[in-house]
Amino acid sequence: MHIKKSLILVVNDDGINAPGIKSLIAVAKEFGDVVVVAPDKPQSGMGHAITLDSTLHINKTDIAGVVAYSCSGTPVDCVKIAVNKLLDRRPDLIVSGINHGSNSSINVIYSGTMSAAVEGALEKIPSIGFSLLNHSIDADFTASKHYAKKIIAHVLANDFSKEMCLNVNIPNLDTDLIAGIKVCRQAKGNWEEEYDERSDPMGRTYYWLTGKFVINDDGKDTDEWALANNYVSIVPVQPDITDYSLSNNIKSLENV
Amino acid sequence: MHIKKSLILVVNDDGINAPGIKSLIAVAKEFGDVVVVAPDKPQSGMGHAITLDSTLHINKTDIAGVVAYSCSGTPVDCVKIAVNKLLDRRPDLIVSGINHGSNSSINVIYSGTMSAAVEGALEKIPSIGFSLLNHSIDADFTASKHYAKKIIAHVLANDFSKEMCLNVNIPNLDTDLIAGIKVCRQAKGNWEEEYDERSDPMGRTYYWLTGKFVINDDGKDTDEWALANNYVSIVPVQPDITDYSLSNNIKSLENV
To answer: What's the topology of domain B6-188+218-239?
Structure first.
């Protein structure tokens, strides 16, 4: 009897050469066949951007013994072209990351890593984005791999929704210091931006975005609470952004 | 007595030279002081992308007699740098568009026009994105201007939430053929993608994204229903993408 192995698509936003994706490939290989489609350069903060007005270029390579394609587009482009062009069958699971840096709270909407996962769910393929709370290129992914393995195993073993998308954030701690896993909601938060203003050698002004993240939420059911208390946070996410709480308040707009 | 006029920030994603933004500036000028901060080139499909790894450049100009800044970044960058650097006071309202093409249903998450409006609401400034269901550079914005004026007047006259964000889509019809306004929810839909594969003069393969939009929703309370029935659709939107319906189903992940 031939049992078809799971096919797992691995994507990210830090680019195909980031250390984080190698950690995720290593975990994914324990569960089936793996194909990588990832941006050919860093694409952090690309949100749900897609390439409409220019062409996409793909180069086939391999990483850690698995077939890999580098893509000139965004993380969401990688998912779209993987599922609709490059793969010869539909993946059973899409995993994105492991991102170098947090995608908790409002960061989920700026994140290429998470937008790729949301796109996977829109393709009706269960998708999980993983992020480690450490931006460093030298980050230690040991605990992240430990939890990614547990979470992937549970998702593959259970018949959750095909449109399931999980935002998993992992504290920057050794495995034995992590308190466990919490299923959470997205904390309310926002960035207070500042722009660092400089002059180029020709005397023209340019700007760098800087800022600090502010949490406006003291709920104990949020991803920020879980992470601050040494838990891995899992927020299930979905793409309907309708503000149902406001619908009745603004009905008067129908009579203007 | 000095009554301070409203300050309205105008942004878009089609770029500072698009005809749609000129229509929106003309409407906004009827309500107060107007400043434009818009991308220096088309940025359709940029979603909630921000510029993290490179610099931003700003050029001051004017459009239709108002102060305007072209920005090298994304639509969301435009809102951030406008509010946090370029403007000398906080705007009372942000309007985005008028977009050349629909941003109904799932298109809201790919849209730079709507992501700029969502960013405005994150800055606690009421924000409205306007889109006309016509991609043409020669689109007729007469009906869009008529409805944008009514909607802006109503929003400025009422004390809705500071975090209010509206996704307004306008049918491609003459004003007298539009049936009115409906407050709606975002229809479920997705893109079925195809990639047009070509060879460049050096024999290398490249791809163009094409596809067709599929609505998976027969509700009469959706933006797609409203637009198909000649109504202007207004969907209030917000940035929490937690899938609350899935939270209980996946609690078992806390015990893996």
So the answer is: Stationary-phase Survival Protein Sure Homolog; Chain: A, (3.40.1210)
